[in-house]
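Sharing a chain and its predicted structure for anyone who wants a worked example. Both blocks are below, sequence first, tokens second.
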Amino acid sequence: MTLLSSLLGFLLLKRGLGPLGVMRDRARQVSPTNLTVRLPEENMPSELRQLAHSCNAMLDRVQSGYEHLSQFSSDLAHEIRTPVNVLMGQTQVALAQPRSTTEYETLLASNLEELTRITHIVENILFLSRADHNAVTLQCQAIELSQELQKVAEYFEGLADERNMSFLIEASGIGYANPVMFQRAINNLVINAIRYGDADTCIVLAAHSDSHGFAVTVENHCPTVTQQEADRMFRRFYRGDTSRSQPTESNGLGLAIVTAIMDIHAGNVRAEAYDDGHITFRLDFPAKE
């Protein structure tokens, strides 16, 4: 009788642990090259079904993060490769035969320009990395919105004049944010508007505050884009069309940095594209806690 009870107990235990063995075998298949495997949830006891669901949700996040990191690494390598190849090519040509002092000075000036591009890329990557890991210290203070936007317009007035573009400021009230990051976010939006907006148009900088916080908008006219394209502009190293594929100081990271700055402030950023070619970037900052 004892032997029979032991045998039945062993069989019941083996049957009860069977689902764990299935989960174990499936988990062994997960690897960096095979992140699509998921633990079975059907035909599992309720307790194990909840565990499998939680593990699958974790694997979804891991897969998304891994794919994002892989794409980011690929884009970064591609972005840095261009200025490095330019540096190598120009230097090899210069060393092929003796050059005059003027030619060497021209080469050094060109190389400095490319090195500056690489420096900007590295600085932006480091900022985004710190933001991703919540390593950016946020020190906010009250800022006068009209005054801050006026500073931005004055700073970029010369660059806008080259394309016969002008600024219109419609702002009032007080905001609460980190002044340096606020300026950087608005600067990136204005640079984007000047670089990709239509010549002979006006860039509208507007801001207002209320009990819920304050909002800033940058509106300009540009070649018509869809709302889907506008949403993708915030991706790192985004290149939407031929004009956005040309080497620029932002290197496709300007709007991604704006997103990171808004995340640090617990705010939101969005772009609204219209059929008439107008596009509006809106930053919503929360009220002071």
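Comments welcome. Helices lie at 2-27, 46-95, 101-132, 145-155, 157-161, 179-196, 227-232, 254-264.
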